[in-house]
Write a structure and sequence with these properties.
alpha/beta; Metallo-beta-lactamase, Chain A; six-stranded mixed beta sheet; 13% helix; globular
């Protein structure tokens, strides 16, 4: 299994680094949606994407606005954006308000379940982290092969 570090810097991108975005292409999983999201396009290997957001700060969610380009001419069965229900509502209300972003990208909002079953028998669990405004940490586990 490969983990691609699409963005690893905080707060703002620069010429060498993009903001938080990590991808497991074989699983169709993206962790956070920072400016590094544009790099996911060439890595998509599944007909689905599950994007898990840790929190709603712009450096972790602005990449959601890149999804029209990331998914262009890709045959996707579904794209889900998972996160804390209150944070998802804030992102939808503010980042995707009609005056800022008049067309909704092709994804569905999914409030986090207690645990999420992943392809290949994997499981995703989450836990709270201390961070201004609140944050979620994720644990992804698969049975040993």
């Amino acid at each position: 299994m490969r983990l691609h570090l699409l963005g690893t810097t905080g707060y703002h991108p620069n010429d060498r680094r993009q903001t938080a975005c990590f991808m497991l292409p074989e699983q169709g999983i993206i962790l956070d949606a920072g400016t590094g999201m544009y790099r996911a396009r060439d890595l998509i290997e599944t007909p689905h994407l599950d994007i898990f957001l840790s929190h709603a700060h712009l450096d972790h969610v602005v990449g959601l606005t890149f999804l029209f380009d990331v998914l262009w001419e890709k045959e996707m069965q579904r794209v889900h954006v998972h996160g804390d229900p209150a944070k998802l509502k804030d992102i939808e209300t503010h980042l995707f308000c009609e005056s800022l972003f008049p067309v909704q990208p092709p994804f569905d909002w999914q409030p986090l379940a207690v645990s999420v079953e992943l392809a290949g028998g994997g499981k995703l669990t989450h836990f709270p982290l201390e961070h201004p405004g609140g944050s979620i940490g994720y644990r992804l586990a698969w049975p040993e092969a």
